[in-house]
Design brief:
By secondary structure, the protein is of the alpha/beta class. It contains seven helices and six strands; from the N terminus they run E-H-E-H-E-H-E-H-H-E-H-E-H. The protein has helices spanning about 15-30, 45-55, 70-80, 105-115, 120-130, 145-155, 175-180; strands spanning about 5, 30-35, 65-70, 90-95, 130-135, 160.
Length: about 180
């Protein structure tokens, strides 16, 4: 069976509008969708978030997809880099992904610092997946469009830039994301 694991944003919850929409639409296509309520969501830590995925995701295979929103994308990348070598997955769709952030308050920068500064092994990630979609907004207050180039170069991601969707926090649906799932 095809599975999708959706990892929410920093400060988010499993019940955000586009998550519910995506879960319903993918369910119609026969996908089993899991939307986790991540721990310590106001102060996310790499070890906690990646550890949570390791505890709760046991059967990753070529029918497994991941969807991440903001820091959820980083969590997925860091989970994948620790997978057993040569284990393949179907794909990753990232919404508002980042390796660096803009417009952060001092307390937010302290939380984001490890996520930004602890390097990710993209070669290991590409060993597990070659199918990436990255969706950005042209007015995201936290993610600069410079991130587009990074996701193209480091992952070979197909990129979509949506108009005026902010950080995708108030978005009801993202129709283009459905085309990604086969």
């Amino acid at each position: 069976m095809k599975k999708v694991y959706l990892i929410h944003r920093w400060g988010g919850s499993p019940n955000e509008p586009w998550y519910n929409w995506l879960k319903q639409e993918l369910g119609k296509k026969g996908f089993q969708v899991f939307v986790f309520d991540m721990p310590n969501k106001e102060h996310p830590k790499i070890e906690e978030w990646v550890g949570f995925l390791r505890e709760n995701i046991k059967d990753v295979d070529e029918h497994t997809y991941f969807v991440g929103h903001s820091i959820g994308c980083q969590t997925i990348l860091r989970f994948l880099e620790k997978l057993h070598r040569h284990k393949r997955i179907a794909g990753c769709a990232f919404v508002a992904p980042w390796l660096d952030l803009i417009n952060m308050e001092e307390e937010e920068m302290e939380i984001a610092h490890p996520w930004i500064n602890i390097k990710i092994d993209f070669n290991r990630i590409r060993d597990h997946c070659s199918n990436f979609l990255a969706i950005f907004s042209d007015n995201d207050p936290y993610v600069h469009l410079d991130e587009v180039k990074k996701f193209k170069e480091k992952l070979g991601a197909k990129v979509l830039i949506k108009s005026k969707k902010g950080h995708f926090e108030e978005v009801e649906k993202i129709p283009e994301i459905l085309e990604f799932f086969k």
